[in-house]
Each structure stands twice: as C-alpha cells, then as structure tokens.
C-alpha cells in the first residue's frame, strides 16, 4: 500500500470511529457526575413564577423588601408578595418596543448582577451589553455609570459587590469580545481575557485589579472587605483577590467546585453561596482539555445545543456553600432531576433563614427554608 494511503486511511476513519463511540456511549459522555455528601432538598423549594425568563440575580433593598430581579427583556422587577406579585421597578434601556420576555434583544439590555448601595439606596446593575448602570430608589430608567476601563470597552459586565466603608464597587467584565448572549462562547473559546475592576464611587475612577481570567462570572466581597472572590466558570473554581492588607494585589485559588459556577453571594455570617450552572461530566472535561476542542464545539453546534449538553441533557439545580475563610465546601444542595430548580444562577441567603435561588434562563425564582437542609 502506498504510504499516502497508509496515512490517510486512519485519518479518514476517525470521524466514523468517533460517531460509533458517541452512538453507543452518548448518555455516559454527557451524564452529570453523582456527588458525595450532597443533600437532595432543592426539589422541596417553593416556586414563584415570573412573567419573563431569567431572574439571574436577586437583591433586597434597604427595607428588606424584594427580591428585585433582572429579566431577559431588560427590566428589573420587584416582588411585592402573593397579593401584588411582580411589579416593574426599573429598566436599563429606553428602547422597549421590540423587547422579548424569552429571548435577549441587545438593544433592550440584559440586567445581570444587582447590588444596592446601602447608603444612598441606589441600585447598581451589571448589564451584559451596556456596562455598569445605576438607578435611584424610585426606579425608572437606569443611567450609565461606566462602559470603558483602561481604553477597553466593558463588553460583559456580570456581577458586582459594594464595599460601603470605602465607597467602592467591584465588578467582573467577563469578556473583551462577547456579550451575555454568547456566554458559552466565552467559555469554549479558551481565551483568558476576563478582568475584575474596582470603581471608586466618589472619584468616579476605575482600575483593573485582576486580569487574564477565564470567564469570571460571579463576584462577592468578603465580610471584612479584605478580599473579593471571583468565580471562573470555565475553570470550575473561585479565585480570591486581596484588596487590603499585606497581601493586597495578589490572588490565589480560593475554592475548587464540582461544576461551572455562576454568581456568588455572601451569607449573613460571612460564608458564601455559589450557584452552579451545571455539574461536571465527561463532555465538559473533554471540552476543557484544550482551547481548540472548545473552539471546535463553537463552530460545530448551536448555543442551545451547548447548553443542553453541558447540563447532561437534563437541566438541574445545584448550589454550594463555601467557608468565608478557607473556601472549603460546607454544603451541597441539589435538585439533580430538575423537578423544580433549573439553571440555578444565584443563591441568596437572608437573615430570616430563607435561601432564594435565581435562574439564568427559567421564568421563576425559588425559596427554601434553611431549616430544611439543616435538619438533614
């Protein structure tokens, strides 16, 4: 056999071999991991439906009212209890004519992370298209705060947190290329271009305090304000960035997680809740082996397909509690079958013992009494 045929025959057979492997082992390839020491309690949540998709982040105001949530069509809604339900509070774009409650329209904006300034009552908003915005206590049309830092456009403002003692707002810019609508392309591209930005609310000055991050998604400030934690979805980990004290300016891995993290919130006692968009699987491990594999998937499949596969073909809910000091995993709560919670994006624990959970795609928020999992 000519050498060219000896070389080309195995190469030509590769797609066939891969197709056969996928046919027989597909379920095993995409199936999400089973976790040890997890509590299957999220299916016991109370579900509160919304009139639009994607309450990605939750926040409560100075009076403890809410939650407030940002949804797909660019609005921020406020929950006013069972009788009044959800009411409009604010929006990030004046262009409202073609906004969809189910699909993102860039001109309508996409509010993501929400943070109230406890001094002024202003709500700071990370919009996945426009940058950082804010709206006063009465709501209405939000105003632009920041859309560029160090000569680079803020393409994908994601989540932030406020140091009220220093009047500083920290937030993530997840990509220099993609907006929120292409979030999975940010993950699969393999490019480490995300950054964490510090914005002085008095001087109006901003500077980058960490860069070369791989899809920094959630961000939260520690209880004593000495560090911020940013969660890199593509690396299944959270990173601690020191902003005060002798370690200021340095960072290290804070926690390793059993899946892709979305938002992170500090608890009343100083620990952290991290919502995982999905658990690990053989498929996610393969896609993360090398950037060219991820880029191949970007070209070979639609966004909806990528989301489906990373969720093991079955949307599910999972949130993880981390020690506020060490990053150690303290609790894992699941709805592994997705009976109630799907595409969990944030878990927010309130002082009255409730755990509120948002979703990046589903039209609902969920509420769980912490006594449910404390007793198990």
What's the multimeric state?
A: single chain
Number of domains: 1
Strand order of the largest sheet: 1-25-24-23-22
**How much β-strand is present in the residues?**
35-45%
At the first level of CATH, the class is: Mainly Beta
CATH topology: Neuraminidase
Q: Percent helix among the residues?
A: 10-25%
Distance from N terminus to C terminus (CA atoms, Å) equals 67 Å
Described by strand count, sense and barrel closure, the largest sheet is: 5 strands, mixed
**Measured on Cα atoms, how large is the radius of gyration?**
21 Å
Any idea what the CATH architecture is? Answer: 6 Propeller
SS element count, helices: 7
CATH superfamily: TolB, C-terminal domain
Using the alpha-carbon principal axes, give the shape.
globular
Contiguous uncertain segments of 5+ residues: 1-15
The secondary-structure class comes to: alpha+beta
Number of strands: 28
- Provide the residue-averaged pLDDT: 89
